[in-house]
Amino acid sequence: MMKKRIIIIVLAFVFVFVMTFAGAEDWDEDEFAGDGIEFDDLDDFEECDDFEDYEDFADFDDVGTEEEYLEALEENGDGTGSDQVADQSTAEYKEKVQRMSEISGYNDPDLKTDGDYAYYVSEDNTYCITSLYKGSSTDVVVPSSLGGYPVKIIGDHTFENKSFIRTVEVPDGVVAIGKQAFFMCINLQTVIVPEGVVMFGDQCFAACYMLDYVQVPDSLESVGEMAFLGCYALKEIEFGENLKSIGSCAFHTCTELERVTVPSTSVTIDESAFISCPDNMEVIYLNKL
């Protein structure tokens, strides 16, 4: 009985791994792997000390209820359902739920929902911050309001690990894109960001392997640490006149990056911003001081 359960668990882990990395639609690993970089080897980013492993962030769709969790184990076992296994499974389930709740406030009483989105309302009740996307659209147009509140911030982890998303349009009125907002959206190709956005948060587009176009607004002032880390398909990006800083490891391992345009030499660019980018990559200054 125990041996059978172990085999099933191992097979399940293998299945999830294959579906996550090898089974992503239209993801051509050979095309974007670049200089020997392995897509599933996060050790490539070890120079970026604050990099958060995607394994720290689970997909809510996998949780289910405790009863469903135990029933699945029962169905995949030999039907005996020993107390010891049930107790252990219950503990595992509770640990998983707690971990997911901590990540994005899924059980937070302050979290509200509207359609495919969960969101928080600001303390002054004037705007909202997205927290979680539960939809399935490949072409996402983020709503300009949720629950009657204008969307002002794309919150941390909102679209994280949504591998089915291909394009995203951020609405007018948004001023910031939070940490890891689109982390591991491995098939995301195009992002349209409107005027008014002033900040790209840390790792906001990290590990978006297929991302090849970002419409950057002139209003953008700062690019966070590791914001575009591992965006293998990105070949060029142009920043507007208000850009003030580019953080550490911002374009780490962007192996196809050819050109980055910034407004002037007054922009603060961290010395590690372009680690593991092509040797012939150009940083073009529109106005040299």
Describe the structure.
With 289 residues, the chain is α/β, with parallel strands linked by helices. It folds into two domains: 2-30 and 51-104, no CATH class; 31-50 and 108-289, Leucine-rich repeat, LRR (right-handed beta-alpha superhelix), CATH 3.80.10.10. The protein is built from four helices and 17 strands. The strands form three sheets. Strands 1, 2, 3, 5, 6, 8, 10, 12, 14 and 16 form a ten-stranded mixed β-sheet that branches. Strands 4-7-9-11 form a four-stranded parallel β-sheet, with no helix packed on it.
Features:
289 residues, Leucine-rich repeat, LRR (right-handed beta-alpha superhelix), 4 helices, globular, disordered N terminus
Concise overview:
The protein is built from 4 helices and 17 strands. The protein has helices at about 1-20, 30, 65-75, 85-105, and strands spanning about 110-115, 115-120, 130-135, 140, 145, 150-155, 165-170, 175, 190, 200, 215, 220-225, 235-240, 245, 260-265, 270, 280-285.
Which secondary structure elements does this structure contain, and how are they paired or packed?
Blueprint: H1 2-22, H2 29-32, H3 66-76, H4 83-104, E1 112-114, E2 117-121, E3 128-133, E4 139-141, E5 145-146, E6 149-154, E7 167-169, E8 176-177, E9 190-192, E10 199-200, E11 213-215, E12 222-223, E13 236-238, E14 245-246, E15 259-264, E16 268-269, E17 282-287
Parallel strand pairs: 3-6, 4-7, 6-8, 7-9, 8-10, 9-11, 10-12, 12-14, 13-15, 14-16, 15-17
Antiparallel strand pairs: 1-2, 2-3, 5-6
Helix pairs in contact: 3-4
